[in-house]
Amino acid sequence: MTVVVAVGAQWGDEGKGKLVDLLAERASVVARYQGGNNAGHTVINPLGEFRLQLVPAGIFDPKTTCIIGNGVVVDPGSLLTEIELLSSKGVDLDRLFLSERAHVVMPYHILQDRLEEQAKGPRSIGTTGRGIGPAYADKVSRIGIRVADLLDKDLLHERLEFVLALKNRMLTKLYDADPLSFKETYDACIEQGARLSRYVADTCLMMQQAVARNEKVLLEGAQGTLLDVDFGTYPFVTSSSPTAGAVCSGVGLPPTAVDKVIGVYKAYCTRVGEGPFPTEVKDEAEQTIRERGHEYGTVTGRPRRIGWFDAVLARHTARINGFGYFVVNRLDILDTLPTLKICTRYVVDGVETENAPVRLERCEPIYEEHPGWLAETGHIRSFGDLPPQARNYLERLAELVGAKLAIVSVGPRREDTIMILDDLL
User: What is the pTM of this model?
Assistant: First the structure.
């Protein structure tokens, strides 16, 4: 048995989708354990370029069962659109399963999300407006609608009647917005539930049975650890936990089932939206990295903020998740830069530290400078063939992260990959 977790180690957008796509051919099951359609994985393979939001990146391997776990909040319309797109490209969806326990992103969640952000004004946190936070809030408040409810007309009618009355009072009294129609909302839910019914299953049992059969299982999260609601740059975080610790509750496995945790980093840092970013750069390097890396949000299209590799936060996320191995993506984006920087320590209120404080906005980075390699790396497939400066840079990252460097990506395609360790799954 091998159960492997792939975790974003920065602020998301690290390239987890490519890693999952690479490893999926070795897995029997690939499952998503948290988040919603507020995050995206871009996968480029022989079938084309795909920007997945809810469907696990293992869907492109014909032998792999793909599961959307109970820890995910699901916008039915978004999922159906994604399914239709994949089907139109010849992707087999018979291997896709959706947890009956997953909570549903309802129309009022999306409206509430956008109205709340507007009401916050300059204190808004820059959500995607997809309703993810309100959906998770309703889950915890015990007024959520679950996927199983969409398949039970009477139960859905009873629950939606109660919840929509609450939501409409909030929309009209607090935000001066128009109320939502019960009939339109109910009818849409029933229609979407009917279309999704073929995919709905007891995925917790499926996961447990796969582990009992000693199958290889790959678990993928959305976003990154620095957006974790507990350990990220709160309040500029997502509404769930992207860490390895959320896997068990997100798919229904015990902690003892997990064998390996792989952290996914970029060779530099990016983030979308507001919040502290100690190594953010505002110079020529920022523009070079953004344009060479096409650093724009997969879901939102917003330009990503750019920064140097932050080893303080890299160690922080490695410790929280227990990374035994890590991946460095997008090394090739740095090919043209004459000098690179790595943040190894902070100065906080005049005191140096190698640890991440809770208030990152008070941190001033201390950098090491490394010479760039000024050579194209996109064609390289062996670690030993990389320019010496590139090898030195990666080896220094491994020292600072405290885990084994397993894979280096030098381009977006599957083949643009340097496999250093080949036994991850």
Answer: 0.92
